[in-house]
Amino acid sequence: MNTETGTPVAATATAEDLHQLAELANLVTAARDAMSDDIVTRLAGAMSEGITLLDRLTRNEGLIYLLQELDRPENQHFLVSLANAFTEASKELATTPQAKGGLVCALRLVQDPGVLEGLRLVSLVGSRLSKSMREMHRHGG
Amino acid sequence: MRILVVGGGTGGTIVANNLARRLSGEIRAGKVKLTMLSASDKHMYQPGLLYVAFGQMMPDELYRDQASLLESSIDFHVDPVEQFELDKNQVKTKSGKVYMYDVMVIATGSRIVPEQIPGLAEGAETFYSEAGAVKMFKRLREFQGGKIAVVVGVPHKCPIAPVEVIFSMHDYFKARGIRDKVTIKYHYPIGRIHTIKEVATWAKPEFDRMGIEYETLFNVKEVDVKNKVVKSEEDTEYAYDLLIAIPPHRGMEVIEKNGLGEGGWIPTDRHKLTMNGHDNVYVVGDTTNLPVSKTGSAAHFEAEVISENISSIVKIGTPVRDYDGKVYCFIETGHDSATYAMFNYQNPPDLKPPSKPMHWFKMSYNKMYWTSVRGLL
Fold first, then answer.
1. Does the pLDDT value for residue B44 go beyond 70?
2. Nearest to residue B159, comparing CAs of B360, B328, B361, B372?
3. pLDDT for position B157
4. A41 touching chain B per CB within 8 A
5. pLDDT score at B310
6. Does A88 map to a domain?
7. Alpha-carbon span A79 to A94, nearest angstrom
8. Is A106 within the bounds of a domain?
9. Cα angle for residues B288, B128, B121 (degrees, 5° grid)
10. What is the tens place of the pLDDT at every residue in B5-29?
């Protein structure tokens, strides 16, 4: 093989270049010797399943839509708030004495304005969710 | 348009998945319905049987649930076809149901028929079924020395298998340290050691190097199981301690019973891959009578052509591709080296020297097959 000016490539290679090539060849040989049928089979198996999974994920329209929604900052904030709310609620639940049950207990609970706000939120979410599900089924989804 | 795929082997599965991808919009819109009928809910990676026969793979590694390999838009039924009524564009299944089609793909495959040769089923070990491959491994494992005869029935699936089993046996007994106690004799039905001339030319010096004895023009006539002698149509015979056979194959019984093709092989247009005289019926894989190897790779390349053509017929009203006879066969040349043969109708194979990376490529393909059959590779 010649360079553009006609000088053979081998002639331009320095001893250092050849040494580096030899090192590379040694590395390839070492890697080859270290490999086994089992390693190759496991790698190929993981790759095969990985490709299949990637294919399913990238062609899943619902997932793509979810990812697009997740790109919106308000949705990211919502998810963070949701996670924080669950963390704090679970901590509070752990330190609160167990409810005794009964009507009096329920009345005491709804006297808390925060609980009433929560119930309102749940009912609003429920109303929108049922509307959205009705639409989905109407369109054959 | 109703597209019906009959058979869930390599060819049928690739065709169905490819069509489901190419026609996803049409299927969603209800313009195309894609149905597959298969005899089994399991899919087997058949080339893996050779590895099972040498203890390199376990049988459970060869199977996946067929439904898990199919696109969700494919209407899949385990209900084998019993009657093909091509004049009515319909088939009848074992359950009694009738499936109508506008386009049908027949991918029913082939079967082994060792019973065609007296004594072969009882006297020989084979690796063309799970039970056979496990039994063959156990026989090889307990073998301590003596004469092994390898015989080849025709026609048979995977043309490279007779050569591969020789290489594998040589390495297997070498690894056990008893190669010098084992005589391996290879018998082949035509006048050279392999039907593909280039493979024969390449394999002969390899056999000589490994000390493999060989006899050509040996068509198995019968096996004398009691006296352990295999006899040929050419009036020669060989006394063995262990007999290993590549059994003869036929197409599926349902093809023969319905008169679709002699021996179960359907007369097929070599480029269009349609059944002769039926432009809306395609044939893929072992089921064809084409002069190409009966291998998964041939089925794969044919399946790509068929699915592209059916899809283009749906979209623009005409097929766009022709099959060129392409086949790609891995050749395991022992337990740690391999090469390959690639050829088509026009070009014979040009075999490269065996290497370890090529063996790893084959080992990798054993796993990548599942990606391939899903229509991804």
1. yes
2. B328
3. 95
4. yes
5. 98
6. no
7. 23
8. yes
9. 105
10. 999 999 999 999 999 999 999 999 9
- pTM score: 0.86
Best probe of the B interface among A48, A49, A53, A59, by most B CBs < 10 A, is A48
ipTM of model: 0.74
Query: Can you tell me whether residue B153 is helix, strand or coil?
Result: coil
Whole-number pLDDT of residue A2: 45
Determine, for residues B360 and A37 on separate chains, whether the beta-carbon distance falls below 8 Å: yes
B124 and B238 both lie in a single domain: yes
Tokens 């998810």 found at: A79
The number of domains in chain B is 2
Q: Structure tokens of A78?
A: 């919502």
Cβ-defined contact of A52 to B376 (cutoff 8 Å): yes
Distance, in Å, from the CA atom of B283 to the CA atom of B273, rounded to the nearest integer, reads 6
Chain A residue with minimum CA distance to B61: A45
- Give the three-state DSSP class for B5: strand
Which of A32, A35, A45 has the CB atom closest to B367's CB atom?
A45
Domain final residue pick, B205, B224, B248: B248
Average pLDDT over residues B155-172: 96
Hey, is B95 helix, strand or coil? Answer: coil
Q: What is the DSSP string of B9-63?
A: SHHHHHHHHHHHHHTHHHHHTTS-EEEEEES-SEEE-GGGHHHHHTTSS-GGGGE
CA–CA separation, B239 and B218 (whole Å):
14
**CATH code for position B58:** 3.50.50.60
Residue to test with chain B: of A29, A40, A56, most B Cβ within 10 A: A40
Contact A44 B368 (CB under 8 A): yes
* Cβ contacts of A52 on chain B, cutoff 8 Å: 370-371, 374, 376
Judged by DSSP in three states, B341 sits in strand
Among B119, B112, B110, B111, which residue's Cα sits nearest to residue B220? B119
Clarify whether residues B127 and B243 are in a common domain.
yes
**Two tokens at A120?**
């309102």
Does residue A94 lie in a domain region? Answer: no
Query: Is the bond preceding B155 in cis, omega lying within 30 degrees of 0?
Result: yes
pLDDT band at A3 (very low <50, low <70, confident <90, very high): very low
Arithmetic mean of pLDDT, B276-281: 98
Residues of chain A positioned with their CB less than 8 A from the CB of B370? 48-49, 52
